[in-house]
Amino acid sequence: MNKDEYKTRRIRPLDPTVVNKIAAGEVIERPENAVKELLENALDAGSTSIEVLLKDGGLKLLQISDNGSGIHYDDLPYLCQRFSTSKLEKFEDLQQMRTFGFRGEALASISHVAKVTITTKREGDVHAWRAFYVDGKLAPLSPSNSPAPQPCAGKQGTVITVEDLFYNVPGRKAALKHGSEEYRRVLNLVQKYAIHSRMVSFTCKKVGETVASVSLSSRLSTKDKIRHVYGTLAVKHLKVLNIAEGATNVESFHADGLISSADYEDKKSVFILFINNRLVESIELKTAIDETYSKFLHKGASYFVYLSLVMKPEQLDVNVHPSKRIVHFLYDHEIFSAISEKLVDLLQTTDEQRSYAMQTTIPSITMVKTPELPSQKTKKIYENNLVRTDPRERSIKAMFSSSQNAATFKSNKKSSLSEDLANEETQVEPLANPTPSLEAGLDEEENEVSEDKTIVPCELESIRQLQNEVLNSMHLLATNILSEHKYVGLVCPYKRIAAVQHNIGLYLVDYAKLAYHLFYQICLTEFANYGKICMNPPIPLNKLFFVSFTKDELELSEKTRKLLVARRDMLHEYFSIEISTEGFLNAMPCLSKSYRPYLTRLPLFLKDIAPDKVDWLDERSCLDGIMKALAKFYVPVRLSPENTSYEDITYMERLLEEFLFPEFRRRLICPKELFEQMTIFQVTSLPRLYTVFERC
């Protein structure tokens, strides 16, 4: 700029829109900041269940659903205005701040760089309200509508949907990394809040995926949550750190947490710090912890530290950073010293019991044997008690090319319908020749719905009750065995038995019963958000009923057909089952991208949802019955000794090793009834095998 141009410039106040965008850039730097603000708002609302849904790392879609207290209708016009808040009235209130949000900048900042839709319902309200915001103001959902909030269906709580983040700030959007990196950051954030928030359940996943990346129930302990996130080895070396109130000179200060011992090993250190339940960073405290660990660990070694500090609100200043990521507090040196001293005490205790892996040297004549000091003695672990497998280790198949491992399991079994139904031990009138049009419909290639399908939050109390029943029925030991097992192999495809190893024990498992509960739980988790398997051409229901119903059940068959046609809208909305008014089956739900059910079992599925087996008049019984029928439909078929080929067994082995058992390990909650029914049965262990070998 030359001197003349500078002289002509005048000082003027910025346009409010520019001011708001500048302020939004300070508060919301990336999707992670938006998720943190919205998570904290949900926690302020008293939520016990929070679900996070992302697309492209949150840049295209970011949705937070909670079951909190909701928002008053009269407050909706002010919700996204800057400095509009219910938590602060005068500046002095900052000294007693006990909530996460207080400035009224989070939603306002997000609305200036994204399109925000909010659906909320308070307890006792007849219906929910939906509002759309642009640049901090209410806006119409469509040009013909009013900008006022519109009534809609909804459950108690709030659903905030943020679309096209930074759509009007292209420079900021271009500076962000790939969507996968943004998703990793958000995932790390949700995991930290899930570990700290003991009474809140958290779920985080990508749009279009059936499996949640994070699903941590409030019923899990802090150590169990850390085990799910960071692995069993991390929990194995954790010690409890507790500084009781009154142990320091700082009034009303106390701290608790979990810290790793000197035996802990990982690629990088983990430091999680909460102060008054607020996730923050403290460079000074981290430096003090680094210096303390450096006295006991070699250079470059890692550690795990989770700390929760509690102090008087007036001792904490949370208004020092736009995103409230950094806080200042009084008596920081006293607090750092107390934490360091406690850390030293714990590390000294574990350091005395520390063991080292020693390399055996080649003995020589001149070597003099030195006496072993008492402190160097370690307990010997015999070979028959060594755990020889780790479920996380790389398998040989993983070393093959990606094209060899990219197979999708599709059931293109060419056996007749009568053979497939006979394998299920169901009494059905056999067909001499399957109907050509029916067989053609079953052999067509399936097509999934695209990932752009709108995600529908679960709003039915009956589904919530069924989900809670699954959590309450969890058998901890059996679930732990499945989550940490090592798949061994297929034992008997005719009885659907496989072998797995957990620690030093060898177990036989009935993979059919486990698969039934896996797909039932997928139905509950992804309710009303299933993919779709299209029938091409559509299959007439009458021909399917002809296979599954006997001649004596013609009346029941016709009643079932009329019922399914009459309830086709509900079946399509909740289960992606498409039935035309003419009585043709157009689509079935897809519960997994990697596995297709045996479509020759469609007649059995339709018979399982007939009115004599499912109570269609009761909401909960109806939904539960249909989901159980779907789970049964997805269970791998029982192979028959007479009609099983080598290819069938090979396919089943790959299905178990590459899909089913990894899914059992990742997401299955094993109910108590399976353990009591000996679905998971220990047949032997290494000590027992060594005993047998010694006798031989």
Automatic annotation (TrEMBL):
GO terms for molecular function: ATP binding; ATP hydrolysis activity; ATP-dependent DNA damage sensor activity; mismatched DNA binding. The keyword Chaperone does not apply. SMART domains: DNA_mis_repair. This is MutL family protein Mlh1. The lineage of its organism: Eukaryota, Fungi, Dikarya, Ascomycota, Taphrinomycotina. Residues 410-446 are annotated as: Disordered. GO terms for biological process: meiosis I cell cycle process; mismatch repair. Residues 226-348 form the DNA mismatch repair protein S5 domain. It comes from Schizosaccharomyces cryophilus (strain OY26 / ATCC MYA-4695 / CBS 11777 / NBRC 106824 / NRRL Y48691) (Fission yeast). The keyword Metal-binding does not apply.
